[in-house]
Specification:
This protein is an alpha/beta fold. It has helices spanning 18-21, 40-51, 63-70, 86-98, 126-147, 180-202, 227-232, 249-252, 254-261, 297-311; strands spanning 31-35, 55-60, 76-80, 105-108, 119-120, 124-125, 153-157, 208-213, 272-274. The strands form 2 sheets. Strands 3-2-1-4-7-8-9 form a 7-stranded parallel sheet, with helices on both faces. The chain has a two-stranded antiparallel sheet with strand order 5-6. It binds NADP nicotinamide-adenine-dinucleotide phosphate.
Length: 316
């Protein structure tokens, strides 16, 4: 049955932390993969899941830096993965599958935001390729082990930035001219649609999927923005002092950790979350929630077909 895109009264909110949503939850014996689990909210996610007992696999394109970042966190292993390179995705998946381990939690937290125009693979726009196609290929290749442990939860980390753009069906690669925020918006809409269709395809096998906006958190994600642009967007003043209320990394990680582990979400899936709660659908500017186009089942199925064609991988 389709899960309604409506609040459920989780009891958590914008200031809840990853440790708070995990209180009383024992993840001993569970295996989690966290892409981007060595920076920003991904690193905090790794720390919180490991603290709750999970074994966490962190795929990283900068493995040496990742090992430094997770040093001291028990039960964490790092392996190499560049989401912008489908050969690298296949190699990581093959290595992981060869270990014969089941996956209980898969959190797709890695991402790049508003980078200068960059082309990867056969000329794909880098934000769509990294944030969406790389994760699409990764999850699809890992599918056998998402099923065998009794059904994993897959968490696709999107953003409020999805409101900036629907999928540009007639120009996915920005051949007609690049806009870094529209490209981020398209990629983040793709993250939402991916969860909608993955959940539809996976639910009979026990695999459930969620997408989410984590909130605004100052992390290395902003690396491609110069200070003047953050000032212009009203995030900080000229001295770098925050003008809006940012979440801490512990708060920013909470929604994806909640998505991955909350007993309240058992039997649910395919919905967009915000502030540790199922979000409402909205078309209002500057209101929280998810745009209708991002949770449209027909668009989700269409994007799946396009993504399978582009990456050359699909579910069995
Ligand atoms: N921070 C926010 O305010 C905010 C708001 C809305 C949504 N989000 C979403 O939250 C997620 C995490 O963001 P964050 O704030 O934690 O950012 P972050 O600190 O920059 O972390 C992003 C991670 O993704 C990794 N990554 C980037 N390109 C990759 C590639 N080609 N292959 C493998 N890994 C790659 C980065 O690795 P490297 O360090 O090696 O580049 C880094 O570990 C992103 O999906 C972002 O869109 C964040």
């Amino acid at each position: 049955m389709t899960t309604p895109q409506h609040k459920i009264g989780s009891g958590f909110g914008a200031t809840s932390t990853a440790d708070e949503v995990l209180a009383g939850i024992d993840l001993t014996g569970r295996l989690a993969i966290v892409t981007g689990g060595y920076s920003g909210i991904g690193l905090e996610t790794t720390r919180a899941l490991a603290k709750a007992g999970a074994h966490v696999v962190v795929p990283a394109r900068r493995a040496a830096s990742a090992r430094e970042a997770v040093a001291g966190i028990p039960n964490v292993e790092v392996d190499e993965l560049d989401l912008g390179d489908l050969d690298s995705v296949r190699a990581f998946a093959d290595r992981f599958l060869a270990t014969g381990r089941d996956i209980d939690i898969m959190i797709d937290s890695a991402g790049v935001m508003a980078c200068p125009e960059t082309r990867v693979g056969p000329g794909w726009e880098a934000q769509f390729a990294t944030n969406h196609l790389g994760h699409f290929a990764l999850v699809t290749r890992l599918w056998p082990r998402l099923v065998t442990g009794g059904g994993a939860r897959v968490v696709s980390v999107s953003s409020a930035g999805h409101r900036r753009s629907d999928i540009r069906w007639d120009d996915l690669t920005f051949a007609r001219g690049y806009d870094k925020w529209e490209a981020y918006g398209q990629a983040k809409t793709a993250n939402v649609l991916f969860a909608v269709e993955l959940d539809r395809r996976g639910r009979d096998a026990g695999v459930r999927a969620f997408s989410l906006h984590p909130g605004g958190i100052m992390t290395p994600l902003q690396r491609h923005l110069v200070r003047a642009e953050m000032v212009e967007r009203g995030w900080i003043d000229e001295d770098g002092t925050p003008l809006v209320e940012f979440k801490t990394p512990e708060q920013g990680a909470a929604t994806q950790v909640w998505a991955a582990t909350a007993p309240q979400l058992a039997g649910l899936g395919g919905v967009f979350l915000e502030d540790c709660e199922i979000a409402e659908v909205t078309t209002a500017d500057d209101a929280p929630g998810v745009r209708p186009y991002a949770v449209d089942p027909a668009s989700a199925a269409r994007l799946w077909t396009v993504s399978a064609e582009l990456t050359g991988v699909d579910l069995p």
